[in-house]
Amino acid sequence: MATPLRIGSGSHQICIQPVKNCKYAKFHACRQILRDKTVVKEGKAAILFPNANEVFYNPVQEFNRDLTCAVITEFARDLLAERGVKVVVPGEKEKVLVSLTEEDPEVDAEADLTTEKKNGDEESAVVATVGEKCELGLRVLEGLAASGLRSVRFALEVPGLLSITANDFSAKAAALIARNAQYNGVSHLLQASCKDASMLMYEKRGKKERYDVIDLDPYGSPSHFLDAAVQAVSEGGLLCITCTDMAVMAGNSGETCYSKYGSVSIKAKYCHEMALRIILHSLDQRAGVYQRYIQPLLSVSVDFYIRVFVRVFTGQATVKNSASMKYSAASGPPVGTECEHCGQRHQLGGPLWAEPIHDSQFVHKVLSAVAGNPSRFGTAKRIEGMLSVVTEELDDVPLYYTVDSLSSTIHCNTPPLLKFRSALLHAGHRVSISHACKNAIKTDAPSAAIWDIMRCWEKMNPVKREKLSVTSPAFKILSTEPSLEACFTAREDANPQSRKRHLTRFQENPHAFWGPKARAKAGGGISTNLQDKRKKFQNKRKITDSSPLKNFPCKRFREVGLGISTIHTHNTHTSIVLCLLQISLFLVFFVVLHLCFMFSI
């Protein structure tokens, strides 16, 4: 007799009895699992979700999960090649080199051939495929797994894995993870866990128990888990960290950012790249406590969150040199109390990670793999566009300017991006775009050169100087004559290759209310819809038929009396007319009384 299948634990355990000698046995089992559940398909995974909002799921994060699968695949390819294991990805043909630079493609081709020879040309004793356990493979932990969708996709789409631990503190989520593992047939790779994520990682701090890959995608800030994560990852292992608390990291609350990440954020146009450098600094600082340091592979700002992929190594000498990467001893203040260009006070932020936030060689590998196998991911076009822009960035230039903010400062028309980049190139400076902002300018030009170019542009598109305040930044900047003659003639190399190839670089929101979803309710049930919250707490002064707002007049209403009745209105003209009408009625009433009195005499 067939053995019944038990999934979950405690009160959430279910039992499925297979039907003997029945070709529809799998159908009967699935039908029992699917009761009160919704099936969501993403990639090669089919995930069961409760109809109530008991377990968190956000379809917007498909790009995040696709990118993570692509990064872990290339990380496994490099790491397992050292162990004599060849990684095989379904649908992957001969590797295609994606070169976005026109300077020296032969150098890139030579480097790619060297990597190919290292990874695949030599006959490997072991071949790792998706869905199969590899004894020399990677140990993966998803600390906050929710439904287990990401872990199931790892098991079905990423080759070279030894085990996957999908953990969640919610018992309902852990039971759902076990169901989804059984439903997708990956129980031999994926184990569900119901523990506190930090405690689980602290338990695995031993060198022989550490994880090769740790993925943390919390609802909000990951700061609570960073200390445990940098200890539980193996030597040269991969940390995948997501931050969705962008309001804190983008400058809305610098004090909160300092308490969580050890850096003060500034509210500025470059806030998204600053957020990336803040989380990298925080990771490096916490790793340094244990004589470890980080090496960023890829750092991206996407939609409403940021995502970083870093490797962690151990080395006392490198940790000591880490301070020189972010700080340097100075004999005095590096700047004055006021900006030499606009005359305004400086804003102090940081400390930040000042080194490159990407590994260009690794990013090219991921880009080549995604471009060579476009049917593997549903968001392959966006991944290709995003990584293409990343490869074009100046990796040694922190932060960026935005052309619209420069123009807004001096109250002039905004120059086209192509002309502004051309002016910087004509002046002998390097320039690139940024994946974090579509109108960003990353350049090694000093601030004086930037404002000289804007002064030259203002002469071509003059502003009304007489309307500028003497104390305004615009007046101070435009009062100085430019020290160079900017040339705005368009140059061919000012147009990025990703733009010439019409790649999907900065995707627009596909529909309204695109962004983070409501948090799952701990006790189950349906949580309040975000749109309903917006209607309840916004536009309170706007009275609609459906909104039960206060039905009494505010203090700004003018009270106009008409006999025994009273009218409230905001309209000044209406108030005057009603007052005149009231005065006329009183006069008529007075005349009638006077006539009656005369006739009575």
Automatic annotation (TrEMBL):
The keyword Cytoplasm does not apply. It is an enzyme of class 2 (transferase). It holds the Pfam family TRM. It catalyses: guanosine(26) in tRNA + 2 S-adenosyl-L-methionine = N(2)-dimethylguanosine(26) in tRNA + 2 S-adenosyl-L-homocysteine + 2 H(+). Gene3D superfamilies: N2,N2-dimethylguanosine tRNA methyltransferase, C-terminal domain, Vaccinia Virus protein VP39. One of its GO terms (cellular component) is nucleus. Keywords: Membrane, Methyltransferase, RNA-binding, S-adenosyl-L-methionine, Transferase, Transmembrane, Transmembrane helix, tRNA processing, tRNA-binding. It comes from the Eukaryota. One of its GO terms (molecular function) is tRNA (guanine(26)-N2)-dimethyltransferase activity. Its EC number is 2.1.1.216. This is tRNA (guanine(26)-N(2))-dimethyltransferase. It comes from Gouania willdenowi.
